[in-house]
C-alpha cells in the first residue's frame, strides 16, 4: 500500500462510520473525490471494509495493553486500523507501527504518538486473542448478537462468523462463462458461479450482458417466479434491477413493471437493462401507494423484494453493524407490512406473491408473513424446498454463509378465491 493519503483517509472514513454512524457508501462518496486515483480508492476501500468488519475484536485486542480506553475516538481508529493491516493484510510489525505514527501526525494527533507506539508494539507481540466479551469475540455490537441468538439457537455462530468474512463474488451467466474466470458452479442453482475477486465491469462478457454480478441466494427469486409467456408481473422494489434483469433473461415475453421509489436508484435499473439489452416498464413511485401509479390491471405474479435490515448481507455491508439501531427494525417492519398489504390488492385471484428479504430476522420474515396471513386470510403458502435452505414456520431461510451464500428469506404465497 503506498500514497500519502491512504491511511489518513481510511481512518477518517472508518471513524465517520463507527463513531458518527455515517453510511459507508456515503462516506466513500464524500471523501473519495476525483483527486484519488482508482488504485488508491480501491486500497482505501479495502482497508475500511476490513477495519470496520473486525473493529470490535481488534479494539479489544489492544485495549488490554492500555490503562484506560483513550477518549479520542480517531486515535482509537488509528490504532485499530494499524492492527487490521498487521493481522488481516500481512503488513510487517515495524511498518504498521511507523505508519500509524505517521497517520496520527498527519491527523494532528501528535500528542498520541507515544501511546500509539507503545500500545501497538505490545499488541503485535501477542499471538492470539479470544476476546474479553462476546461482542469482541464475534466483532458485533451485543444487540446484533442477541437478536441472532434469539432467532437461530443452533446457527447464530455460523451467522456471526459469515458476517465477518470477505464476501465471495457470485455471477449469473447467460452463457457458459469463460474458463479464464475460473467459474465454480453452484450445487443447485443453474447458471450461478462463484469466481475469484476481480473488477468484472472491465470484462467483455459483463459489458455484453452475458454475465451479471448477483449473489447465488438472490438468483433464486426469478426461478421461483418462473415467468411464463404474456404474464403480467410486478417487480415492486426493483432497483438496482438485479432480479428484474434475471426475470427477463428467463422469459423476455412477459409484461414486466419494475417499480422503484427513488429516481436515482431507478436510473440503475435502466442502466442494467440497457447492458442486458432487455426492456421493462420502469416506474418511479411508492409501491405502498398504488393510487398514484397503478393502471388498474391486476398482476398475475408479484415479486416483493422488500427493503429490510440487510442482516443477511452484513459481510457486504459491515457498516450496518454500527449505523443501525434496534429501533430501526420496528420502522422497517412497518414498511414491509404496508408493502405486503398494498401488494395484496394488486394481485389477481390465483396469482402469486413472492416475498423476499436479505435478512435472517424472523421479525422481518416468517413472523411478518404470519401477521400478514392473519389479516389477509385469502393468502396461503406455496411450499418451497431447497437443500441449502432451512424451513421456517412460513417460508424458507438461507442462513448467511450456507454454501457461501448471502442470508436470504423467501416466502411464496397464493391468493385464493375465497
Ligand atoms: C432490496 S432492494 C431491491 C433489490 C432489487 N430487487 C434487485 O434485485 O436488484 C429494495 C429496493 O426497494 C426500494 N424501495 C423502498 N421502499 C420502496 C417503496 N415504498 N416503493 C418502491 N420501492 C421501494 C429501495 O429504494 C430499494 O431500491
UniProtKB/TrEMBL annotation:
It catalyses: cytidine(967) in 16S rRNA + S-adenosyl-L-methionine = 5-methylcytidine(967) in 16S rRNA + S-adenosyl-L-homocysteine + H(+). GO terms for biological process: regulation of DNA-templated transcription; rRNA base methylation. SUPFAM superfamilies: NusB-like, S-adenosyl-L-methionine-dependent methyltransferases. InterPro entries: MeTrfase_RsmB-F_NOP2_cat, MeTrfase_RsmB-F_NOP2_dom, NusB-like_sf, NusB_RsmB_TIM44, RCMT, rRNA_ssu_MeTfrase_B, RsmB-like_ferredoxin, SAM-dependent_MTases_sf. Keywords: Cytoplasm, Methyltransferase, RNA-binding, rRNA processing, S-adenosyl-L-methionine, Transferase. It holds the Pfam family RsmF-B_ferredox. It is found in: Cytoplasm. It is an enzyme of class 2 (transferase). Its EC number is 2.1.1.176. Residues 145-416 form the SAM-dependent MTase RsmB/NOP-type domain. GO terms for molecular function: RNA binding; rRNA (cytosine-C5-)-methyltransferase activity. GO terms for cellular component: cytosol. Signal peptide: none annotated. CDD domains: AdoMet_MTases (cd02440). PANTHER family: NOL1_NOP2_SUN FAMILY PROTEIN _ ANTITERMINATION NUSB DOMAIN-CONTAINING PROTEIN, NOP2 YEAST -RELATED NOL1/NOP2/FMU SUN DOMAIN-CONTAINING. Specifically methylates the cytosine at position 967 (m5C967) of 16S rRNA. This is 16S rRNA (cytosine(967)-C(5))-methyltransferase. It comes from hydrothermal vent metagenome.
Amino acid at each position: 500500500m503506498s500514497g500519502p493519503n491512504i491511511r489518513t483517509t481510511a481512518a477518517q472514513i472508518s471513524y465517520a462510520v463507527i463513531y458518527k454512524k455515517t453510511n459507508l457508501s456515503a462516506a466513500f462518496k464524500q471523501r473519495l473525490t476525483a483527486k484519488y486515483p482508482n488504485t488508491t480508492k480501491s486500497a482505501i476501500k479495502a482497508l475500511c471494509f476490513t477495519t470496520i468488519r473486525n473493529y470490535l475484536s481488534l479494539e479489544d485486542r489492544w485495549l488490554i495493553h492500555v490503562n484506560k480506553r483513550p477518549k479520542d475516538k480517531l486515535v482509537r481508529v488509528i490504532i485499530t486500523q494499524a492492527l487490521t493491516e498487521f493481522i488481516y493484510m500481512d503488513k510487517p510489525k515495524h511498518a504498521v507501527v511507523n505508519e500509524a505514527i505517521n497517520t496520527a501526525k498527519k491527523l494532528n494527533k501528535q500528542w498520541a504518538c507515544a501511546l500509539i507506539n507503545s500500545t501497538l508494539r505490545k499488541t503485535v507481540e501477542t499471538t492470539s486473542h479470544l476476546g474479553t466479551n462476546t461482542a469482541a469475540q464475534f466483532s458485533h455490537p451485543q444487540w446484533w448478537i442477541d437478536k441472532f441468538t434469539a432467532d437461530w439457537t443452533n446457527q447464530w455462530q455460523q451467522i456471526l462468523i459469515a458476517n465477518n468474512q470477505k464476501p465471495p463474488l457470485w455471477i449469473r451467466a447467460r452463457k457458459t462463462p469463460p474458463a479464464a474466470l475460473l467459474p465454480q458452479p453452484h450445487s443447485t442453482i443453474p447458471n450461478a458461479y462463484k469466481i475469484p475477486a476481480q473488477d468484472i465491469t472491465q470484462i467483455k462478457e459483463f459489458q455484453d450482458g452475458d454475465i451479471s454480478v448477483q449473489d447465488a441466494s438472490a438468483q433464486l427469486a426469478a426461478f421461483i417466479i418462473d415467468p411464463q409467456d404474456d404474464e403480467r408481473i410486478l417487480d415492486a422494489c426493483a432497483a438496482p434491477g438485479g432480479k428484474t434483469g434475471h426475470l427477463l433473461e428467463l422469459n423476455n415475453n412477459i409484461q414486466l413493471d419494475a417499480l422503484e421509489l427513488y429516481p436515482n436508484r431507478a436510473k440503475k435499473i435502466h442502466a442494467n437493462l440497457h447492458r442486458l439489452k432487455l426492456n421493462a416498464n420502469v416506474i418511479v413511485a411508492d409501491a405502498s401507494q398504488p393510487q398514484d401509479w397503478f393502471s388498474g390491471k391486476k398482476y398475475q405474479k408479484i415479486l416483493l423484494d422488500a427493503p429490510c435490515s440487510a442482516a443477511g448481507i452484513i459481510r457486504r455491508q459491515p457498516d450496518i453493524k454500527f449505523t443501525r439501531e434496534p429501533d430501526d427494525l420496528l420502522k422497517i417492519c412497518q414498511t414491509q407490512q404496508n408493502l405486503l398489504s398494498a401488494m395484496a390488492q394488486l394481485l389477481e385471484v390465483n396469482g402469486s406473491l413472492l416475498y423476499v428479504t436479505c435478512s435472517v430476522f424472523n421479525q422481518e420474515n416468517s413472523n411478518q408473513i404470519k401477521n400478514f396471513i392473519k389479516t389477509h386470510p385469502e393468502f396461503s403458502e406455496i411450499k418451497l424446498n431447497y437443500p441449502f435452505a432451512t424451513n421456517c414456520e412460513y417460508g424458507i431461510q438461507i442462513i448467511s454463509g450456507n454454501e457461501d451464500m448471502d442470508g436470504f428469506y423467501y416466502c411464496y404465497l397464493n391468493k385464493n378465491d375465497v
